[in-house]
Amino acid sequence: MTLDFLSPVAKEVVAHAKLQDKQSLGNVISFYQKESEFPEIKKGSVVIIGVLENRNDINYLGEKLSFNEFRKAFVELFPGNWSAEIVDAGDIKPGETVADTYFALKKVVEAVIKLGAIPFVLGGSQDLSYGMYRAYDNLDQMVNMVSVDAKFDLKDPSEGIKNNNYMNSIIVDEPNNLINFSNIGFQTYYNSQEEIDLLEKLYFEAYRLGEVTNNLSLIEPLTRDADLVSFDIASIQASELSSGIGYRSPNGFTGKEACAIARYAGVSNTVSSFGVFEMNAKMSASGVMLIAQMLWYFIEGVHCRIVEPSLSADNAYKKYIVPSQDYDFVFYESQISNRWWVKLPDNEQENNNIKKHSLLSCTQEDYLIACDQQIPKRIYKAFRKNLI
Fold it and tell me: Mind listing the pLDDT tens digit of every residue in the chain (388 residues)?
């Protein structure tokens, strides 16, 4: 591990953990406690990383961050019917500049992923997602990013990266590793028409809050294809997070829905990093516990991951061909998990990285829509993007 960038977990947190029931998470987690001694990170483990950075928050007024209360809440919980390895790697302190913090986060996340573990990043302002995204620069892969956010964070970037415009840097900056971006839970009145039109032009996906809460299963195919999931907790109803200060939106996801989204992310075989952002000192004790429970559900999801066999495996999938005027849709249904995929058209252009992602996660409903000679919105966008 890149220990130079990490500071140990506070002694008060470790002491609080040891006071909990012997079967609680407090006596299961391996803590980074001493500068010279770092716990072993095993393949498949979940690694908690705090990032004490919020200077690029557009509302930053000099407040300091601490995740001690979150950690105290989490260690009080009991594990489910799983035996996941959990490591608390401590915190990344703010660098001399915010760019230094991004670099430190990039290096730590990259190191954890290379060990076969999954970093759970707890941060201040959501622009830290940029540092997580840059961690994939040296991992030889394109990135499918999912953001749970009421806003697209595509505001004017002329004054540099902020938590309301960081997506511009992810989309534009080189090296460009972004293969797809999906937003879950946007609220129209927080986003300009220009931003909405830009996502459509790029064939990115965006799902309104009401659309998602009416059918939470819409999230599953999105997270199943994701590599990085960034969760802005301001997308949760303000009443669930604070006593009336700091978080303003009366509309948003409930605590139950937030935990369900975290579990969907955990179940995905491709999600290799998960970040929860916009933490601040104004959260209530119940809000802090909600974030702790989101981590609990994420870990449970990781434990429930199912490794699907290859498409060539005998009797592992049912194959459905749906003829249409221009293209024959080929769907696959797993006989193990009952999950669905659709094959994307091949694109043999040398500079097209999307050909490596020839299957798109979908649902049985998408198959039935295709049978009615209609193209589901998500499949249409993927097809268009793959042919560019």
Answer: 566 899 999 999 999 999 999 999 999 999 999 877 899 999 999 999 999 999 999 999 898 999 999 999 999 999 999 988 999 999 999 999 999 999 999 999 999 999 999 999 999 999 999 999 999 999 989 999 999 999 999 999 988 999 999 999 999 999 999 999 999 999 999 999 999 999 999 999 999 999 999 999 999 999 999 999 999 999 999 999 876 567 889 999 999 999 999 999 999 999 999 999 999 888 899 999 999 999 999 999 999 999 999 888 888 999 999 998 878 999 999 999 999 999 987 655 444 444 445 899 999 999 999 999 999 999 999 988 876 5
Which structure tokens are listed for 16?
């609080």
Query: CA-CA distances (angstroms) from residue 162 to 57, 58, 169?
Result: 6, 6, 10
β pairing state of 30-31 and 178-186:
unpaired
What's the Cα-to-Cα distance from 141 to each of 102, 103, 131, 136, 243, rounded to whole Å? 20, 19, 16, 7, 42
DSSP letters, 213-270, are: HH-GGGHHHHHHT-SEEEEEGGGB-GGGTBSSSS---S-SB-HHHHHHHHHHHHH-SS
